[in-house]
Amino acid sequence: MAYVQSLPPDYESPTEPEDDIGPATMSGRVWEAWLDMQGSTRRLISENPSEGRLLFYLILSDLVFFLSWTIKGVLAPTSAAAAMMPIYMSGVLLVGFLMRTAAMYVLAAAAFAACRLAGGQGSWRDTRAAVFWGALVSAPFGLLAALVAVGMRHGEHIWPAMADPVYAMPPYYIGLVPFLWFIAAGLAAVHGMRRVGWIFLVLSTGTVVLSILGVYLSA
């Protein structure tokens, strides 16, 4: 008779995957965030990420930001964009890349203060995690917008209407929508707020006000 080893009833195989491990790769984590940004942010917070890891996420989003704007602002701008952008666009992009990291810390600080005033419970570190992770998760949409701008640039000779600023300029700014939305969802998860829409509205309003102020100061 073959000997059969009995196992305790609560035994679990060591090879059995656990449900709370989450995606192991960066692409898997980003895909998870696209489907459920709040859940993805809560998982990130539960991992107690170091400051170096958060800074890595931010710098990685900076690189994608720089790549997307280099494509649509320097390498293959539409004719309407080329007419509206300065001829020293490459220098502007370089300065913008260097300043973006500091600007993201300022954005995180402003978001932390605003959420706290609204009754949020998240910490300063968790707020940075939500903002930096949201910036990275939304970065591929900016790159996709850059590729759309390149396609429009090459399609201008087929459909001249693409040269009209009404059609040519949206790919340069549409990436702000997922950027603000994913950050808003992350902040809602961190600070225990139920409605993402209100945070998104505040971020959008602040962006519009700063844009108008920038245009006024540069005039």
Overview of this structure, please?
- The chain is built from ten helices and no strands.
- It is mostly helical and 219 residues long.
- The chain has one domain.
- 30% of the residues are buried.
Q: Structural class from helices and strands?
A: mainly alpha
Task: Give the number of helices.
Answer: 10
Q: Give the number of domains.
A: 1
Proportion of residues in extended strands: under 5%
What would you report as the Rg, rounded to the nearest angstrom? 22 Å
Portion of residues within helices: over 70%
Total DSSP E strands: 0
Mean pLDDT: 79
Instruction: Give the end-to-end Cα distance, rounded to a whole number of Å.
Output: 92 Å
Q: Could you state the order of secondary-structure elements as H and E? A: HHHHHHHHHH
From the spread of the alpha carbons, the general shape counts as: globular
For the biggest sheet, the summary is: none
Secondary-structure blueprint:
Blueprint: H1 26-35, H2 37-46, H3 51-75, H4 79-84, H5 89-117, H6 124-155, H7 165-168, H8 170-173, H9 176-191, H10 196-218
Helix pairs in contact: 1-2, 2-6, 2-9, 3-5, 3-6, 5-6, 6-9, 9-10
Task: Give keywords.
219 residues; mainly alpha; 73% helix; globular; disordered N terminus; Yip1_dom; Yip1 domain-containing protein; transmembrane; transmembrane helix; membrane
Give the structure's gist in a few sentences:
This protein is 73% helix and 0% strand. The chain contains 10 helices and no strands.
